[in-house]
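Dear U.,

For the methods section draft, I wanted the exact inputs and outputs in one place so we can describe them consistently. I've listed the two proteins in the order they'll appear in the manuscript figures. Please don't edit the C-alpha cell lines directly; just add comments below if something needs changing.

First protein:
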Amino acid sequence: MLVIIAYDVNIGDKNGAKRLRHVSKMCVDFGQRVQNSVFECNIDYGTFVKLKNNLLKTIDKEKDSIRFYLLGNNWKGRVEHYGTKPSINFEDPLIV
C-alpha cells in the first residue's frame, strides 16, 4: 500500500536536529523523498505499523508533528505529479 508521510520537526531546541535526522533516516529506509519532509512509501500494513510506532517514539509530540496518509493498494488514480522529481514506479524492476 502507498503511504505518504509528512513531518515537521522543530529544530529550535537542543535535540531538534537529532530528531529530524532520525525521522528522515527512518523514512528514507522505507520510501522515496518527494519533498524535503514528505515521503512516499510503498509498504505492507505490518511494516507501516512498525514504522509509524518508531516515528511516534522519535518525535516530541509537544513540538513536532507527523501525518500519515494511507492511500492503499489502489493509489495510482489518486496521485498526480507535475514538475521535477518524478515518482518511482514501484512496479518496475529494481536494479541495484
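Second protein (the one for the lower panel):
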Amino acid sequence: MSDVKKQIEDTISSGPVVIFMKGSPALPQCGFSATAAEILRRSGAEKMVHVDVLADPAVRQGIKEFTGWPTIPQIFIGGEFVGGSDILRELYEKGEIEGMVKAAVGAA
C-alpha cells in the first residue's frame, strides 16, 4: 500500500466526520469547500477532521484516486464516503445529513 493511501485511510478513521478540502473550515479556499464545511457545522459536526489538500499535492491527487471522485471537497461520515459539496447539499436539503452526523459522532 502506498504511503499516501495509508495516510488517507488513517485520516478517514481518525474521526467521525472527515473533510478533504481546500483550506480549512475556518478559512476555506474555495466556495465548494466553504459550503461543505458550513453544512457539516450546521448538521452538528463541531469537531470535524479536515485535510487541506492544497498543502499536499500527493494527498490532493491521492484522495481522488482513493474514492474515484474527481472533485474536492470530499466528505466522509462514519468512515463512509458521502461525496462532494453538491451531494452534501442535496442530503442536507432532504434532512438526511444531520442524522448521519449524529449517528457517526455518537458511535465515536
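Candidate sentences for the figure legend, describing the second protein: The chain has five helices and four strands. The domain at 3-107 is CATH 3.40.30.10 (Glutaredoxin).

Thanks,
Y.
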